[in-house]
Amino acid sequence: MSFYRNRVYPHIVTVLGNPKPIHKIRQRLLPQAQGTVLEVGVGPGVNFPYYDPAKVKKLYALEPNPGMVERAERQRCQTKLDVEFLGLPGERISLPEASVDTVVSTFTLCTIPGVADAIRGIGHVLRPGGRFLFFEHGLSPDIRVRRWQERTEPLFQWAFEGCHVTRDIPALIKEGGFRIEQMETGYLARFPKSGSYYFWDCQVKDDLVSQLISLNNKLDLLSPDLVHGDKERAEVQERRESLYAEIKHHRAKGHEGKPCPAARKA
Question: What is the pLDDT of the chain when averaged over all its residues?
Answer without folding.
Answer: 83
